[in-house]
Each structure stands twice: as structure tokens, then as C-alpha cells.
Design a protein that fits this description.
Number of strands of chain A: 10
Strand order of the largest sheet of chain A: 2-10-9-4-5-6
Structural class of chain A: mainly beta
Low-confidence stretches of chain A: none
Shape of chain B: globular
Mean pLDDT of chain B: 97
Largest sheet of chain A: 6 strands, mixed
Low-confidence stretches of chain B: none
Order of helices and strands of chain B: EEEEEEEEEEE
Number of helices of chain A: 0
Largest sheet of chain B: 7 strands, mixed
Number of helices of chain B: 0
Distance between the termini of chain A: 40 Å
Order of helices and strands of chain A: EEEEEEEEEE
Helix content of chain A: under 10%
Strand content of chain A: over 45%
Largest interface: A-B, 19 and 20 residues
Radius of gyration of chain A: 13 Å
Mean pLDDT of chain A: 98
Helix content of chain B: under 10%
Structural class of chain B: mainly beta
Distance between the termini of chain B: 37 Å
Oligomer: heterodimer
Number of strands of chain B: 11
Shape of chain A: globular
């Protein structure tokens, strides 16, 4: 069974940093591209970042470019999102999702940016 | 950036009624359009891939159609458990984008 479990969310001050993790199981993680998608409270879905299966290719939404960094460790079956210079508008539930199809999603982790 | 425009934003429907949700892309995306269902406090679930391909385990009352710029999600004979938000998503090009969502309420 495919499982994606996010962690690392919490309350962070504006301008601060947070690192999210996504632990994958039930499939050959190293063979699949991955994404981060977020959802602000009461709002719709927003794609954040993509990473290829090898990690050699990454893409970002303009709203996070230069502040967020996506990475992965295929030996640990894990996906990461390093978030710096956080703003109030980054407050959201962050989901990791598999492939461009977004065929499997984790349960999400809430990041709240507030003083 | 490819903008996806979903309509309607909200629909209140009685059980067994048919629901039609549309998604229009700002430029042609072939069949790279997918549909998701999100129930309150849950993560989204893939319903339809590549415009019209069914997903294992998804009830047959859910179907999709379209190509190019105009796409439709149809729910035949709505059931109470179908109360949810529905989103379209395009994987044709980066940045990946979503439609604004359609909330379906059961009367």
C-alpha cells in the first residue's frame, strides 16, 4: 500500500525557517517524481514544487522561488521542503504527492506563520 | 502559466441528481487534465486521470470527458457521500496548476 506521511509543520515566526519531511513507503520511491502542494485555510490547492526521480530536475511556483528548496534522499525514501523567509501567506497545510498525476497524497502537515 | 477556470464554484444538489462540473484551460493541454475529490479534513483523492481515464476503486458514476481546452467531470446519480470539493489539475506544463474548485453540497 502506498503511504506518504508528512511531518515538520508547526508555528513559525515571519522571516523564520521550517523543514518539512515526507516519508514514503509501499512503492519504489527512487523511481517516482514527487511534488509539494499546499492549501491555505479554507482555500483551494496550490502547487509548490516538483522534483524528478533522481533529484536532478526541480521546479518551483513563482510564489516560493528563491525561498523554498525541494530535495530528496532516495536511500531514506524521503522527500523534503526547506522553507526560508517565511511569510504569513505561506500559512497552509502542505501535502506531498506522487508524480505529475498527483496520484497519491499524504495527510498533510500544517505550517502556521505568525508572530 | 496555464489558468484553469472551473465552474460552478458551488452547487447544491439532491441525491440521484446528475452533476456536471466544467474546467476550461487558458491554452490547449491535450488530455493532461485530472480530477480530484476532497472531503472536509481529508487530502485530495484522484478521481479521473488524463481527462477520461477511470481510476481503480472509484465508483463508476464518476466520469470525465474533453480535450484541448474544455473538460467536464460528470457525477451520475449523486450520492450523499459525494459531498465534497472537486478540483481539476493540469500536468501539461510547469507551473502545475489547479482550478479554483467546485463545492458540491447535498440538499
Amino acid at each position: 500500500e502506498v503511504q506518504l506521511v508528512e511531518s515538520g509543520g508547526g508555528l513559525v515566526q515571519p522571516g523564520g525557517s521550517q523543514r518539512l519531511s515526507c516519508a514514503a513507503s509501499g512503492f519504489t520511491f527512487s523511481s517516482y517524481e514527487m511534488n509539494w502542494v499546499r492549501q491555505a485555510p479554507g482555500k483551494g490547492l496550490e502547487w509548490v514544487s516538483y522534483i524528478s526521480s533522481s533529484g536532478s530536475t526541480v521546479y518551483y511556483a513563482d510564489s516560493v522561488k528563491g525561498r523554498f528548496t525541494i530535495s530528496r534522499d532516495n536511500a531514506k525514501n524521503s522527500l523534503y521542503l526547506q522553507m526560508n523567509s517565511l511569510r504569513a501567506e505561506d500559512t497552509a497545510v502542505y501535502f506531498c504527492a506522487r508524480t505529475l498525476l498527483l496520484d497519491y497524497w499524504g495527510q498533510g502537515t500544517l505550517v502556521t506563520v505568525s508572530s | 502559466e496555464i489558468v484553469l477556470t472551473q465552474s460552478p464554484d458551488f452547487q447544491s444538489v439532491t441525491p440521484k441528481e446528475k452533476v456536471t462540473i466544467t474546467c476550461r484551460a487558458s491554452q490547449t493541454i491535450g488530455s493532461s487534465l485530472h480530477w480530484y475529490q476532497q472531503k472536509p479534513d481529508q487530502s485530495p483523492k484522484l478521481l479521473i486521470k488524463y481527462a477520461s481515464q477511470s481510476i481503480s476503486g472509484v465508483p463508476s458514476r464518476f466520469s470525465g470527458s474533453g480535450s484541448g481546452t474544455d473538460f467536464t467531470l460528470t457525477i451520475n446519480s449523486l450520492e450523499a457521500e459525494d459531498a465534497a470539493a472537486y478540483y481539476c489539475h493540469q500536468s501539461s506544463s510547469f507551473p502545475l496548476t489547479f482550478g479554483g474548485g467546485t463545492k458540491v453540497e447535498i440538499k
